[in-house]
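Hey, I was hoping to borrow your eyes for a little while. I've dropped the whole record in just underneath, so have a look:

——
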Amino acid sequence: MRSVWSGNLAFGLVSIPVKLGSAVSSHKISFRQVHLTDQGRVRYQKTCELDEEVLTAADIGRAYETPDEQLVEITDADLRALPLPTAKTIEVSGFLDAASVDAMQLDTPYFLAPASPAANKPYVLMREALARAGKAAVGKFAMRNSEHLALIRAHDDVLLLQTLRWPDELNSPAEAAPKGSVSISDSELKLADTLISALGEADLTSYHDEYAQAVEALVTAKLEGSELPAAEQAGPGKVVDLMAALRASVEQAKGGRGEGAGAGTSGASGASGASATDEAADGDDRTGHASVTELKSSRRSGAKKTAAGKKATASKSSGTRSGGTGSSGTGSSGTRSAGAKSASAKSAGTKSTASKTSAAKGGTSKAGARKTAATKKTAAAKKTAASRRKAG
């Protein structure tokens, strides 16, 4: 760790030799200014405004300008001799809850590290004491020609020092606040709450600097002489209804997280979700106390309606196919099921027809038997009568 300041951390009568190093780094893309004609780098020269002489670092000093425009020269030796205890010591003067510090006051973070092996034990003692108490230490120290207010707290295995802006450096937010009276309805608040819940917790480790990556890709393409990356064209901004925008945002967030996806198509699930959101908003307009529970119930109701619609469509498809005018199967389980039912109905009809035919045949056979019996009786009677005539 490269040290940017060294001194002592005073914790009561305990003095801990420490050194300060930056806790963050930057991957900001930097550019050089060049002369477009010959690609020569542009350099700046410091000149004296009185004689226009070009100056070197050794020729330049510092001076304080008074309100009446008098210049008072201040040397490095003058600054080193200032009677400030904070010049080489961070004096802890009190403790507070780190969460109570206004986020506007937080500035640059630094790692505090023990400056020698002898400093390890008091360093660890202070780190563990702060962690156990759940507190942060407050102190001041001087660095780079200015004095800083600092917050020191335990962070994993180290002490983290974060410089703070002085209270009088914080501007009032009054000028940034919306002017006039703004009315927000319960429906808008409910949908905003639903949107926050649908988007879920943010994982800061998943974020990255896309601008820096895009610049690097552009530089690589220019070096290789390949096609430059195409820019994404953003559409013009549109003023939309706030409620409609909130509803659409909720559905987009839920769709991105895979919620509401079932056996149906994405359009169907989206429709059921939109219906649920509309019902939640309408319910809030009517009663003023729509809840997330009601929203989930409405989504289930919408899903049931969608399922009923699918069954009706499958039934129509089945009817068309059984009439001989439909095309080949659509591949949906509902249509196949309906086709199976139709086939079953056909089979039942065929059996019924066969039964009727069999019954008809059976009836014809019985009638024929009765006719044959009658014929035989008549023939026997005639034969008997003929025999009697012969005998007489």
Q: What stands out?
A: Residues 261-367 have pLDDT under 50 and may be disordered. The chain is about 45% helix and 15% strand.
